[in-house]
Amino acid sequence: MTAAASARQILTRLHEVMASRLHAQGKLDQVVEIIGECLSSEVCSIYLLREGMLELYATRGLNKSAVHVTRMAIGEGLTGTIADNVETLNLAEAKAHPDFSYRPETGEDKFHSFAGVPIVYRERAVGILCVQHVDPRRYEDIEIEALQTTAMVLSELITNAELVDEEEALSLSPQQSGPQTLSGLTLVRGLGAGFAAYHQPRVQITQVMADDTEAERSRVYRAFDKMREQIDGLTTQAEFGVGGEHEEVLETYKMFAYDEGWSRRINEAIDSGLTAEAAIERVQQHTRMRMREIDDPLLADRMHDLEDLANRLLRIVSGQIGTAAQQGLRKDTILIARNLGPAELLEYDRRRLKGVILEEGSLTAHVVIVARAMGVPVLGRANRARGVIREGDEILLDATASTATVRPSAQMADAFAQRFAKSKERQAAYASLRDVEPFTRCGTRITVMMNAGLRDDMSALAMTGADGVGLFRTEFQFLVSATLPQRERQLKLYRDVLDAAGDKPVIFRTVDIGGDKSVPYLSSGIADNDENPAMGWRALRLALTREGLMKAQARALLEAAAGRSLYVMFPMVSEVWEFDAAKKVFDEQLEFMRSKKKMVPEQIHFGAMLEVPALAEMLDLLVPRLSFLSIGTNDLTQFLFAADRGNPALAERYDWLSPPIFRFLRRVVQGTLGSNIDLGVCGEMGGRRLEALALLGIGVRRLSITPAAVGPIKELVRKVDLAEINDAMNQWLSEPGVNLREELSRWATEREIETD
Known about the structure:
Elements: H1 3-19, H2 24-38, E1 43-50, E2 53-60, E3 71-73, H3 77-85, E4 89-91, E5 113-121, E6 124-133, H4 141-160, H5 166-169, E7 180-183, E8 185-188, E9 191-198, H6 213-235, H7 245-257, H8 260-271, H9 276-293, H10 297-318, H11 324-327, E10 333-337, H12 342-346, E11 353-358, H13 366-374, E12 378-380, H14 385-388, E13 394-398, E14 403-406, H15 410-431, E15 447-452, H16 459-464, E16 469-473, H17 475-479, H18 487-501, E17 506-509, H19 539-543, H20 547-560, E18 565-570, H21 576-595, E19 603-610, H22 619-622, E20 628-632, H23 633-641, H24 648-651, H25 659-671, E21 678-682, H26 689-697, E22 702-705, H27 707-717, H28 722-733, H29 740-750
Parallel strand pairs: 9-10, 10-11, 11-12, 15-16, 15-22, 16-17, 17-18, 18-19, 19-20, 20-21, 21-22
Antiparallel strand pairs: 1-2, 1-6, 2-3, 4-5, 5-6, 7-14, 8-12, 9-13, 13-14
């Protein structure tokens, strides 16, 4: 039996029950019997939220004496976990789950398998529908979908019958009145203050079961046409000029809008007897289930795009005004959303939108690329947002520090305002250094470059006065694209970047995808399921096995730099032969272009990133081959300490300012002395004032950092005497057990050098 037929069978019988004159308890007693029979399940139970507890209200298969006796708190046991997370559980062995809680009065000890779905009202779980079976087995997708469909019908039944208290259902989290601090993940840095507005008030589905299936199908088709028209309009907007990466994001988004598989699943849900609204919601629930199971962040981001479109479709088909953007922002606003699609963000008035807080979100999400282009700070992974923030609450957002203060006190607001004003003053002071060359007190010129990855980032080159781009991450174009970017698209991006840079150098890092930056259209082959993808089959390792990938990028870079200088850097080099192999690809493409009488670059400078510690042992062989060497401190640090930077338990454990790291870096610097090689550091470490001071002290003379850090680092450089800091660093690194951060902070304070 298909999912639609199974759900239709259940819905037909439920319709009869709901139309009967039975009282609410009698209807629920019949519902569990119907579901148990249709799914051949030995147990079917319904728990409802009463007085803050989940109460067993009806059951088939468990002891009847447990009805209205067994109660579970939110978060307690499997039912409490489902209610707390508002998510589905499907377990072959219930007792193996860490949240399993045995209740002897139910007589459930002989049952092994368990599946449960939340009964949802206004995004809160007001009950749980679950089934159990003696034999250990996971329930099939068809059965889970039938349960989810039934739960939608039950939501309508129990709220109409007032079996749950509406106010209680909507206040599972305490309604705090005082200040609260939210923590999250910095997605786009910056400060912002405003009043909370929820992006998407929930569309209320007033009718679940359809009277006329074909009429519902027609409503969905009309809604799809209108939604696609809206998306087509968004993709033609000239929001940030022509050719930005946001255009590629929207093209991928548009691909989902025209996806036939998605519309087919909604049609199947309508076939089961659901209204158009209920069918869209039903498919959306399935999408959320899949999102929770996806480990790949890029695929998960694409599922978020699909959910964004489903929300848009639901608003259209229901005729309900949905987003804060459509209602219009009337004052400075901090937008709150579970997740946000790129197209939806573009609908907001940038004059009023001061920041975004997402309950989910990731650094690779499409919305982050668009937000960065709009200059809107974004805080992600704020998973307590809905429990803490109310519509209209005042919010102070510090996305740089990964925090947001909700309902601040007057003192908090004053302190934030002062900090905001000071930040503006500092930015103005740093901006005044735009045309000032960063010489130290002792007269040494330090090269301060910026990192980039988007065409739109290049505007910061003139704004900051950076000496060039020390790291252009070419993989961004690959990460936002639905398919492998062809050579012509790569060529256009690289040429635009070089044109924007003018006579300043741009160091292009060849594509670093694979591992923890996987893309759906390119299997890494050997290690798709790396246990530690950051150390896996990625970057140069992958590129050297994908001959076409590297050839296309080499040709695109060589053609883009025709008649000018080209700087190429290879990532994740572990051994000298890898550098040689990568350079050979460029040499072959160069010879091909010459044979075709094509214009080629005037000069080509090849370099490597030192991220893998093993490469430090090969410097004597590698340095003669290089024009420059860049130390990638982000990956290098985690490799040195065997500490995954994505693991929150380890993220703060190992300090960049520690003797092991700086003794290693000093050895690398000393290994390049006497050569003509240009040695630098690129990464977040070089953009932090205290860390940059230490790097200058061990002999680093080129830094490539985030554009926002260029001004502060220039200002720092002008206060430093290199001989003085070099002597201090040598002394500290020779003393075992020294707290380098404390010593360096004290040293800087004594010399009136401001640190972060």
